[in-house]
Amino acid sequence: MRILIIGSGAREHALAKAFSRSPQKPDLSCLGSHLNPGIRELCRGQYRTGDITDPDLAQAVAREVDADLACIGPEAPLETGVADALWAAGVPVVGPRQAVAKIETSKSFCRELLRRICPEAVPAFYLVTSLDEAEQALDELGAHYVVKEDGLRGGKGVKVSGEHLHSREEALAFCRDVLSDAPQLVIEEKLVGEEFSLLSFADGEHCLHMPPAQDHKRAYQGDRGPNTGGMGSYTDATGSLPFLNRQDIVAAQNLNERVVRGLKEITGVPYQGILYGGFMATAKGVSIVEYNARFGDPEALNVLPLLEGDLAEICSALVEGRLEEVAASFRGEASVCKYLVPPGYPEKGERGLVVTVPAEAAGTECFLGSLALQGDHLVTEGSRTLAVTGFGNTLDEAEARAESWIASVGGGLVHRGDIGTPGLIQKRIDHMKELRGRSVRVGVLGSTRGTSLQGLFDAVESFSIPASVEVVLSDRPDAVILGRARERGIPARAISPRTPEGEKKDRTLFDEELTREFRFFGVDVILCVGYMRILSREFCSTWHGKALNIHPSLLPDFAGAMDGAVHEAVLAAGRQETGCTVHLVTAEVDAGPIILQKRCPVLPGDTPETLKDRVQALESQALVEAVCRAQDQFERGMTV
User: Fold this and answer.
1) Is 127 within any annotated ligand binding site?
2) What is the CATH number of the domain that holds 563?
């Protein structure tokens, strides 16, 4: 397999490394704007330098290397139709065609399109063609606004009120400058919350999602200074981010999927490439900040090294429209990426500084960016010079590894030392708590279908209750409840009650495994929903006041019975009323303090099946109410 990479920055170095790990051992070639020594080392084919935005040059190089596949890294070649030219030459491309790449290359196109596809996630915006229109838009938005240049500016064409623009006069001056060179700009509502990125492989119909990351655009520590192309980013081992709830990730994944389908419906052109959603977690849910049409830089430096699947196979499936046939799994590790830049960046980074790059250390990867070879020396070119990503079981471990490697780099480069540190991450967590209040993080234990969870899933995904379902665990790998969770992007894991040798595990040791998983995901409250195992006394003690069970009867009646047997017993006893009970889990089965009950009549002609249906509807309501009560108790610093 022969793959042509277009682009020569650190992102493309990460792509080359990921392709090199493919079992298919593809022959790599590169068309870059400059010679990247890291990419050149991995290329068994050609390395050509030139204008990467020239469709004719891209076609010529693809023919020379007899490429089976091309992968476009930066956005500029997408804007000029390089992907279209390569497809026309018979070379499949990971990178969207010009018509749909406009989701990044034109802010106005993006906003108008999103207003049609997902209007609830789009801030108020105005397309402005004159200074008079700019004044009107600012009058409408008041003190909270963002001014965006319509075209590409490498992440530097956005100015935000209160951060870059400190008065109406400054905003109008920026608008005047932009409109002197461009026909229009976008002024939109300033979103308040925390930004995050979610990247997805997309084949025009289907998506494979990558772990979410948080980029840091500002140049200096403490989120100060001008915007840059990105000074670093991080991911967490949980597949979420410390300041997000699981439904934030689910919402972002759903939006990416809707946008991929919507682009094809509206333009008639399938989006085949990487869709990069830039989102804001707000008090009311997730809103869209922007869309990019390629791998993020630096986010690619976090997620590509974590990829356990075969990137060459994933990309082949992507261009052939069969992404649903492949898997993209990622190592369950945290990653922290930090860019090293020359002094003076981003305004005027020093050029010609000699840089010494040490060998990669354990738990790190290095990616070369804006560097040139002068004789035997690497020298700075003025922009982001190189990046290192540290990996670990925790963010602390990953950040420490990145910093340890950075300390041995020579050349006077500077970086943001605060990226991935506890202080900056806690600032994000505290900000979201201030906006949303205390959100309770729920873990679920189940052995059956988990039908009664539907109401809770709906409530958290619509942000109508301050809670999130972070993980679902089962003692059965075939439990339907696991599939329900996975369909919603919720981590779902089966923990076997037997050893690899087939012997039954000690109940206490098995429950310790459950506890480790729940703690890994930062769970506050556990819901037992159709869980068919008796929990150990130690587990009940560990989660005292934080584990709830839902039972399909009005306890204490019919305690100890399960599922359909309960409803049969209710009918056999001639009861006129039944319902469900949520109670605290204790070592004595079904005997813990009752939190709440829901009731319904037993009707003439009822069967165990009809009773079960009605009680499950009540269970769905009861779980939502129980989680709300738990949230209220946690707000007051109490257990349930």
Assistant:
1) no
2) 3.40.50.170
By three-state DSSP, how is residue 447 classified? coil
Q: Please report whether residue 379 resides in a domain.
A: no
**Mapping DSSP to helix (H, G, I), strand (E, B) and coil, where does residue 536 land?**
coil
Cis-peptide, bond into residue 556, ω within 30° of zero: yes
471 within domain boundaries: yes
| Residue 311, annotated as binding a ligand | no
Predicted confidence band of residue 639 (pLDDT cuts 50, 70, 90)? low
Within this chain, do residues 483 and 618 fall inside the same structural domain, yes or no? yes
532 is an annotated ligand-binding site residue: yes
User: What CA–CA distance (Å, rounded) separates 81 from 61?
Assistant: 15
Instruction: Tell me, yes or no, whether 48 and 157 share the same domain.
Output: no
Determine whether 580 is exposed, middle or buried from the number of CB atoms within 10 Å of its CB (0-12, 13-18, 19+).
buried
Q: What's the mean pLDDT when you consider all of the chain? A: 94
Task: Determine, yes or no, domain membership for 228.
Answer: no
Number of structural domains (the chain) is: 3
Is 534 flagged in the annotation as binding? yes
377 is catalytic: no
Instruction: Please report, as a single letter, which amino acid is at residue 48.
Output: R
Which one of 13, 551, 567, 583 is the catalytic residue? Answer: 551
């089962």: which residue's tokens? 474
From the list 591, 594, 592, 590, the residue with the least C-alpha distance to 582 is 594
- Residue 148 is assigned to a structural domain of this protein: yes
Tell whether 507 is in a known binding site.
yes
Joined together, the tokens standing for residue 87 give: 């497809």
Domain that holds residue 85: 2-95
- Tens digits of residue pLDDT in 89-126: 999 999 999 999 999 999 889 999 999 999 999 999 89
Determine which helix (DSSP H) or strand (DSSP E) holds 335, and give its type and residue range. strand 334-340
Residues 234 and 242: beta-carbon distance below 8 Å: no
The answer to whether 562 is annotated as binding is no
Q: Quick one: 152 and 38 in the same domain? A: no
